[in-house]
Amino acid sequence: MGPLNGSVSAGNGRAHASTQEGVEEEDVQGQDDLLGEVGSGYTPYLGRLTAVACLGGLQFGWDTGIASGMLVAIHQDLGHTLSAVEQEVIVSATTVGAIIGALSAGRLSDWIGRKRVMVIAGIFFALGSVEQAASQVVRELVLGRVLVGLGVGAASMVVPTFLAECAPTSVRGRIVAINSLLITGGQVIAYVVDAAFYHLPHGWRWMVLAGGVPAVVQLVGLVVYLDESPRWLVSKGRHVDARRVLSRIYPMASEDQVSRQVEKIDLAMRSDVSLAPLPNTTATLKSQLSDVVRDPTNRKALILACGLQAGQQLTGANSILYYSSRLLLLAGFRTNPNSAAVAVAVANFIGTALAMRFVDRWGRRRLLLSATAVAAVCLALLALALGMIDTGDVVDDALDQAAGLAADVGKSGGPWPYLCLSAMVLFLFFYALGLGIVPWLVQSEIFPGPVRGIGSGLATATNWTCNLIISATYLDLVKLITPEGSFWLYSVIAVLTWLFAYFMLPEMTNVSLNDVHAALDSHRAGGGTAQGPGNQGYEPVLGSDSEEEEEEEEEEERGGAGDEEEAWSAR
User: Which of 376, 352, 361 minimizes the C-alpha distance to 499?
Assistant: First the structure.
């Protein structure tokens, strides 16, 4: 991965910090903007930390992808052919568990720590996989799905938050994006497994059981490799432990530099009443909820995070992921729809990989707006193609139960089945570039201090609630307004999501976590540039700086600092 445009932000942060009156205010405002060579990039420990944490994302993606192939492979293994309603219940059971898991994890992660919540999530993943594989009736399968959902919800909330709190500012976007990459990677693996086991007797049981393998690996990694978030440790007064973790993340930093950063993080968290650590009581929970809702900037952050998460789900991506095999069966891919569905998962994976590569260079806002616009067009093309295929009447008969969509599958030939597949592939690609990754990244960055856990929990719960609406109603929606009508609706929602992001989302690339709150407060609707204390009017422009220019700027900054302390960033 090439260099980032972080040097511009770093220079602006120094210039701004020098104008502050008093050392304390300077420490609070410019604490994360002194980004230099010390600890500013990837290290082996940061790689291990990211890999272990992101196994939660892999399991998240596995569950999303496995549902599609599992439903068409169960046949009568649970005593009868599944009805459309039973299929919706099986799919949505995970989402119900995820809503509970996300809401619980938000508060729990502030109380017992990010690491312990990830351990709990891994246990739920493992137990749920075994329960699904051993199920003999529908209700047992649903129970296993709920258990997995609890793990999915907890992991989807806590992993991005943990990564954002550990990663250096210059690579924070890409580090958090790795979790999204592993989510889509899990989907690809699940789709390949679906296709491989499709024709085997009871193959679906092996599909779901295999999902417990990464859970066990993660649990071992959590015990052996993973430390707690340094910011959470500081919030609990555990400064010695926080210094130890920061020393591992930034191995080139001196003890004095690490100590200063711990002090700066602590000072930032105490500089405002809304950021100050609070005891873990019911009264504190009410106080945090009140602070998130009543404080204007916190409320804006909550609306933005929840709105983006709602848009991510209501544009229908999971309708394609959960029911891709049925959609392709409907379009005319009859022999093994799971094989064709692999292309959909691969497109999602490639899009996420590219987003991870460019999210810090192009910027969150620009990437989201550009990709969402194209995704809306792809949804319209999918609706058009489905409209040209004679799907017949959608009724509750045996074939509807088996396919989950239509009694008369794909009568029309010609180019339309391939246009359906192409539109699905292109939509998932551009969805992954924008809506698939940016909402999680924004959510992990936008909430300040101790309200980050509860704010992220509410946003994640919004994501899973909207996921539940989509997964539990899609087949009914198809019957009500036809398959093509459902995707016309999703296309309109994508346009509305674009408008919401245009007016609400500031550019937060290269803004430190402690400055994001001020950047959001100063953002003007429809403007694009965050203007936090360490990022005065800076918006990264694609291709605006050559590698040589960036290196020259970094060299000038290091030369002007005159002190190694200036080269250290506290994120």
Answer: 376
SS3 state of residue 284: helix
Euclidean distance between CA atoms 328 and 469, whole angstroms: 22
Give CA–CA dist 176/165, Å, rounded.
Answer: 10
Helix, strand, coil share (%) of the chain residues, nearest 5: 75, 0, 25
Least confident of 225-229, 408-412, 534-538: 534-538
Residue 31 domain flag? no
Please say whether the beta carbons of 49 and 570 come within 8 A: no
pTM over the 0.85 mark: no
Q: What is the pLDDT of residue 552?
A: 47
Query: Does residue 354 sit in helix, strand or coil?
Result: helix
**Number of Cα atoms under 13 Å in the Cβ half of residue 570:** 30
Q: What is the pLDDT of residue 312?
A: 95
Show the domain range for 48.
44-230+280-504
Q: What angle do CA 393, 395, 400 make, to 5 degrees?
A: 105
Q: Is residue 569 in a domain?
A: no
Contact 409, 391 (CB under 8 A): yes
The Cα–Cα gap between 119 and 73 comes to: 31
Residue 376 has pLDDT above 50, yes or no: yes
What is the token pair recorded at 371? 């990709």
Q: 506: helix, coil or strand?
A: coil
Query: Which residues lie across from 568 on neighbouring strands?
Result: 38
CATH number at residue 341: 1.20.1250.20
Overall domain count for the chain = 1
Q: What is d(CA 558, CA 154) in angstroms, rounded to the nearest whole number?
A: 41
> ∠53-458-500 over CA atoms, to 5°?
105
Q: Is residue 83 classed as helix, strand or coil in its secondary structure?
A: coil
pLDDT at position 282: 54
pLDDT score, position 129: 93
In a domain, 150, yes or no: yes
In terms of Cα–Cα distance, which of 278, 275, 281, 277 is closest to 234?
277
One-letter amino acid of 528 = G
Q: How far apart are the first and last CA of the chain?
A: 20
Q: How deeply is 288 buried, as exposed, middle or buried, from its count of CB atoms within 10 A (0-12, 13-18, 19+)?
A: buried
Give the count of alpha carbons within 13 A of 35, CB side only. Answer: 29
Q: Mean pLDDT throughout 329-342? A: 69
Distance of alpha carbon 57 from alpha carbon 437, whole angstroms: 12
Per the CB < 8 A criterion, the answer to whether 355 and 522 are in contact is no
- What single-letter DSSP state applies at residue 104? H
Evaluate whether residue 111 is within a structural domain: yes
CB-based contact 558:36 (threshold 8 Å): yes
Region 51-71: what's the mean pLDDT? Answer: 85
Closest by alpha carbon to 265, among 44, 99, 19, 512? 512
User: How many C-beta neighbours within 10 Å does residue 493 have?
Assistant: 18
Average pLDDT over residues 363-369: 91
